[in-house]
Design a protein that fits this description.
The protein is an alpha/beta fold. It has twelve helices and eight strands. Helix content is 49%, strand content 12%. It has an eight-stranded mixed β-sheet, sandwiched between helices. Helix 1 packs across helix 2 and helix 2 packs antiparallel against helix 4.
């Protein structure tokens, strides 16, 4: 059963199937939706399908090995040896929810296209294209003329004002932000951002929709956030990264020691430099530039120079295998 049917959402469209878009599409298919995924070229389309296949294979592997990993973790944490009966109970409780056939069914719900005209019957569109206002407004202008009048047009923007994006359409009451966090297959938070003219009905529909879906680990957890540059999490995150980068520049500690300190002393699962590489140096740079242009000031006066140089050098983080750290 498709979880969103009672909410009036049956078909979902995703525009842009890069790192985030491909994962968002997979989550929609995982939850039973037929998903149309639009890319610009055949090469990008095939790359997206390959990424989605990889994500699904990771889900299958996680499901297969979860019980044994939990048994090992429990034994190490408690310092005991579980009996075979206890292990059997754990394996029964955590038995895989998906097999190869189920994974294939999920994959078959994803329908790639090079033509936005194919979005003429969707109920919800989630845009996940390049983080630039002009690009997003152009996409929304096109979608406004293609998607059915009832369709909700959502952006996965991480920093741009929803009200600005909505101005490109004749349905600003149905434009909203649905901001996932990377990787959305593991992280449950969704920032739901109403624009100035977003209707209460649209907000309620989107909140209920987001509450009804899950990723690979848990149910999604949406929160409503005011339409300000950078929203909530990225505003806090950029402030933290700014301080870490500034301390590194000042020679207070090495990159490695700053990461170690924040993990060992502050309980962070990743240090700030490791996190920056995961998010993407270019993504952080464009978020900063977006917030700066909207606020009329520089949110990251010191590190932005570092980020600009790294982007120019192609050191984009994990996705380019080089960022603050080197990756194999």
């Amino acid at each position: 059963m498709v979880v969103g049917m009672s909410l009036g959402i049956k078909k979902v469209g995703v525009v842009g199937a890069g790192v985030m878009g491909s994962q968002i599409a997979e989550i929609m298919a995982l939850n039973g939706f037929e998903v149309k995924v639009a890319e610009q070229t055949e090469e990008l389309k095939q790359r997206a399908l390959s990424n989605i296949r990889k994500i699904l294979n990771e889900l299958l592997e996680y499901q297969k090995t979860r019980a044994d990993r939990e048994i090992k973790r429990a034994e190490q944490t408690l310092g005991i040896q579980l009996s075979e009966d206890q292990k059997a109970l754990v394996r029964e409780k955590l038995k895989p929810q998906f097999d190869e056939a189920a994974i294939e069914q999920i994959y078959q719900r994803i329908h790639p296209t090079l033509n936005l005209e194919d979005f003429n019957d969707v109920d919800l569109v989630i845009e996940s294209v390049f983080e630039e206002l002009g690009v997003k407004k152009e996409v929304f202008k096109k979608l406004d003329g293609i998607a059915p009048p009832h369709a909700i047009l959502a952006s996965n923007t991480s920093s741009i004002l929803i009200s600005e994006i909505a101005s490109a359409t004749k349905r600003p009451d149905k434009v909203i932000g649905i901001h996932f966090f990377n990787p959305p297959t593991l992280l449950p938070l969704i920032e739901v951002i109403p624009g100035l003219e977003t209707s209460r009905e649209t907000v309620d529909t989107v909140m209920n929709f987001c509450r009804s879906i899950k990723n690979h680990r848990s149910n999604m957890q949406p929160i409503i956030v005011k339409d300000i540059p950078g929203f909530l999490v990225n505003r806090i995150l950029l402030a933290m990264l700014n301080e870490a980068f500034a301390l590194y520049e000042e020679g207070v500690a090495s990159m490695e020691d700053i990461d170690l300190a924040m993990k060992s002393g502050a309980g962070m699962p990743m240090g700030p430099f490791e996190l920056a590489d995961l998010i993407g140096i270019d993504v952080l740079y464009h978020i900063d530039q977006s917030i700066k242009s909207l606020q009329g000031g520089n949110t990251m006066p010191k590190p932005v120079h570092i980020l600009r140089k790294m982007v120019a050098a192609g050191r984009l983080g994990r996705k380019s295998k080089r960022g603050f750290y080197e990756y194999q």
